[in-house]
Design a protein that fits this description.
- The chain is of the alpha+beta class.
- The protein is built from nine helices and nine strands.
- The longest helix is centred in the middle third of the chain and has 26 residues.
- The termini are far apart.
């Protein structure tokens, strides 16, 4: 009966994704591993064993710096297996996590890292919006109004892009790092726009941060539809407005190496198109 009950209890495995994080944990005497590859193989074996027992397992990204902060805040000793267990349970609730479904650990690592980056970006953009306060002219909360504007702009952008698979990227330079958000949207015929909730929230928040802070930045859209070449469109963020690029500007942006400035060959079977007008006639804070 106890074994049956064990299958009803989910498990969480904290994963040290890279060599640097693994090396940081080796400073603790209670941490038993000394080789990262061997550690990853053991984690892979553990996940397969739990799955064979019918146990649902979640893999969570274990960050040594966050772990140390957690131990300091809770007053527990970082050099103990119990502390690592408590922290792993904590990050399972709010950190980067992936449900285990038989995939190899090597394929879990990049997904966890991507989730962590996206979460950090969303949190940073949200904090930036929260700091802006109220508009001196109209009294509106700048962050809240910018979120509403960004939501309308993204919806209008996907609507005007028409049917097909749409891949959007929003890039906004911030004080400490480049904020980057990605959104995938599918549209069939003239159906209403349905955006994936989490991705859309992250994308809208990053765009809103660029609008509210009046940072330079941009949005690019790639549309794929059956029987037609991919279409590339682009917009620049300028003084809080999303302004359409010309076809030449879109071509230049895609066909120039960002690091060296050297020309890059255009992709075959791709049309470089101007952005379309999605701005409101009289946007306000």
């Amino acid at each position: 009966m106890r074994r049956t009950l064990r299958r009803e209890v989910p498990s969480v495995v904290g994963l040290l994704a890279d060599e640097q994080d693994f090396a940081a944990m080796r400073a603790y005497r209670s941490f038993a591993f000394d080789d990262h590859q061997a550690y990853l193989q053991e984690v892979d074996g553990l996940l397969r064993a739990l799955a064979a027992q019918g146990v649902h397992t979640t893999v969570a990204l274990f960050d040594p710096e966050d772990f140390l902060e957690y131990c300091g805040a809770t007053g527990i000793d970082p050099d103990s297996t119990e502390s690592r267990t408590r922290f792993t349970a904590e990050i399972a609730a709010s950190g980067a996590c992936v449900p285990y479904a038989g995939q190899p650990v090597d394929s879990i690592v990049p997904v966890l890292v991507d989730q962590a980056v996206r979460q950090a970006t969303w949190e940073y953009a949200t904090l930036l919006l929260a700091r802006l306060g109220d508009c001196a002219e109209c009294g509106e909360d700048i962050g809240r109004e910018s979120l509403r504007r960004a939501q309308r702009l993204v919806t209008r952008l996907v609507e005007q892009a028409g049917p097909g698979s749409h891949h959007l990227v929003c890039s906004v330079p911030a004080e400490e790092e480049q904020l980057l958000a990605v959104l995938h949207a599918e549209r069939t015929g003239n159906e209403p726009v349905q955006l994936p909730e989490t991705e859309a929230a992250e994308f809208v928040t990053v765009l809103a941060a660029g609008i509210a802070a009046e940072r330079p930045g941009g949005v690019v859209l790639r549309t794929t539809a059956p029987g037609a070449p991919d279409r590339l469109h682009g917009w620049r963020l300028q003084r809080g407005r999303l302004l359409a690029l010309t076809a030449g500007e879109v071509f230049s942006a895609y066909c120039t190496d960002a690091d060296t400035g050297d020309p890059v060959s255009p992709e075959p079977g791709v049309e470089y198109c101007p952005g379309f007008d999605i701005e409101e006639p009289d946007p306000h804070h």
